[in-house]
Amino acid sequence: MSARVRSVCAAAVALTLATAVAGPLAVATPQPPGESSAVRPDRPPETSATALLAQLQTLYRQTEEATEAYKTTEVELKRREAEEKKLSASLSKARAALAQSRDDAGRLAREQYQGSSQLSSYVRLLLARDPQSALDQRHVLDRAAGERQAAMTRLARGEQQAADLARASRQALDEQQALAKRQQQAKDDVERRLKEVEQLLAGLSAEQLAELTRLEQQGMDKAQQSLLASGVLSTTRAPSPEGDRALAYAVEQIGKPYVWGAEGPESYDCSGLTSQAWAHAGRPIPRTSQEQWAELPHIPLTALRPGDLVVYFPTATHVAMYLGGGLVVQAPRPGARVKVSPIAANPLLGAVRPDPAADPLPWYRPPKLPEGATEGMDTGYSAEAEPN
Hints:
Strand content: 5-15%
Strand order of the largest sheet: 3-8-4-5-6-7
CATH class of the largest domain: Alpha Beta
Radius of gyration: 33 Å
CATH architecture of the largest domain: Alpha-Beta Complex
Distance between the termini: 32 Å
CATH superfamily of the largest domain: endopeptidase domain like (from Nostoc punctiforme)
Order of helices and strands: HEEHHHHHHHEEEEEE
Number of strands: 8
CATH topology of the largest domain: endopeptidase fold (from Nostoc punctiforme)
């Protein structure tokens, strides 16, 4: 599946320098419920290149949203599995303690039964040789009674604890199974979205792919120029020591393929790259871009420093790492590879900093980029490609 997507997208990259073709492009239009959204040869509706680009970008965004849903469920499933494992261990301990309490209660009951034909404790007190012996014997009797009461209390508490843990364990197992089902549904959704992208691209000619690439690049260049002209990125800053290490790791991954849900070391998706980079720097961060946006401290774009994370789209479904100079390192999308892109390659939502309390380095040398680090397709975005 992904191999075909990569091959088709690679064809679009190779055709970036091809001559743009004017005129309408044949693409798929929305189908009635239950029908495939693939391009159909017997139904060749016509639409503009900008509308086609908007459709393609929408599919990519929907794919990333579905990917985020899958990763979020996967993270939660791992948490629930760990919780269920702890509950199972606690249940085993509680059952062992309960068995011990029952043994203690049974032993005391047997001792009480075996001593039932002997003289009562009061008679033994009356026959004691002296008052001190009587007091000592009474103390022993009281202690024995206390032990019996404590054993019964432990037994009752152990039974309640075992019952509570058994219910919690069953509930955790049920939730784990429900999450596994949701995870499979999210995975199926991602695969379906990727199939739609594949079908759309496969139905286009080489000239159409080249025109889409040109339009996408045009929109990205316009957004990048506007952002740089605003002056928000005019200040050059040094990263923190951890940010420097995270950025160095991200740069080392340049050239590796984007694979949805992947977190290295051979391939990455967008948040797989950023989370692994910061983990290797010694500061673990949330796995998904939405969690990174929700849980990490926000910073203004005017305060960006290398290593910070730049988050995209209104629902925070894409993330990249700031390199400096208006550039980011990112895993763009299926069919692309980890690369250096303009910061405005996608519509910006904001930025977050994993280590807000860390001081910047006293001096900084940016990492050396490998050859071809900026080559290849960016996610891109053209405001003109948005449907009216």
